[in-house]
Write a structure and sequence with these properties.
The protein is mainly alpha-helical. It has helices spanning about 35-55, 65-75, 80-90, 100-115, 125-130, 135-140, 155-185, 195, 200-205, 215, 245-250, 250-260; strands at about 20-25, 25-30. The protein is elongated.
């Protein structure tokens, strides 16, 4: 039989959700950093459970160890109830008996009430040891509040320093790129080729996309301004025929009229 377990009587006076700090002589209400870390650890616990259920479903998790970690999380968040425990464990795909969950919640609540405001959450090394967290799982699930059991402190510091250097390099690249964009002169306006030729865009497409005078040079003859003048300025060696581009877009009635007039 399950039951909702509330925090002990003295735990409510500890102000789990918020705390009052003194800053420059004024009382400032801010969120408790312990509660913030535990909220993140709850999300990491869910991601780790889903990761293991997807990639290692044959190895069942340790119920007692998982219950201890989850109970410590919920007590510092301020919602140490069986209902919340079942919801989080269900989201993480971790099956925990009701008796084990109730015992873990009772133990975590008693410890929280015994130490009072000096009570600290479970250490990252201890939480990773109970969950048997590996370095690959820690990196894949983006876990920051629990340490891996197969990673030494020196390796962890080296990896953190390398990640910090990579973030600094990325930030500096972005800063240099933004400075180059700020100092780069605006691009020169590009004149469309049909405006340079003094024709419309549709006429420019009908003529087969001729090049502008600036692109082809001054020696190239200017293209004709009318479709009827096509072939007049052509060299004698070439036959006076209609280009294929104009033939495709010229109406059939105009071609028949031109042929009839030539006959």
């Amino acid at each position: 039989m399950t039951r909702d377990l509330a925090l002990p009587q003295g735990a409510k006076a500890l102000n789990v959700g918020k705390c009052v700090v003194h800053y420059r002589g004024d009382n400032v209400v801010r969120f408790n950093p312990k509660r913030g870390r535990m909220i993140r650890r709850r999300s990491e616990f869910i991601r780790l459970g889903r990761f293991r259920a997807q990639y290692d479903p044959e190895t069942p998790p340790d119920q007692v160890a998982s219950a201890r970690v989850l109970a410590d999380i919920l007590v510092f968040i301020g919602d140490a109830s069986n209902r919340e425990f079942r919801r989080v464990s269900g989201d993480a795909h971790v099956t925990i008996d009701d008796a084990v969950a109730t015992a873990a919640l009772d133990q975590a609540a008693k410890r929280f009430n015994h130490y009072g405001e000096d009570c600290q959450p479970m250490r990252p090394d201890r939480a990773g040891e109970l969950l048997e967290l590996r370095c690959e799982e820690r990196l894949a699930c983006d876990i920051r509040t629990m340490n891996a059991v197969d990673e030494t402190p020196e390796e962890r510091r080296h990896r953190s320093a390398e990640a910090r250097r990579e973030r600094d390099r990325r930030r500096k690249r972005l800063e240099r790129a933004s400075k180059r964009r700020a100092t780069k002169p605006p691009p020169l306006p590009i004149t469309p080729p049909w405006l340079a030729l003094g024709i419309s865009r549709a006429t420019w497409y009908r003529r087969g996309k001729p090049a502008a005078p600036a692109e082809i040079g001054e020696t190239t003859p200017r293209p004709p301004s009318n479709k009827d003048d096509v072939g007049v300025d052509a060299p004698p060696s070439q036959p006076n025929t209609i280009p294929p581009a104009l033939f495709l877009v010229t109406p059939r009635s105009r071609l028949q009229f031109g042929a009839r007039r030539a006959a």
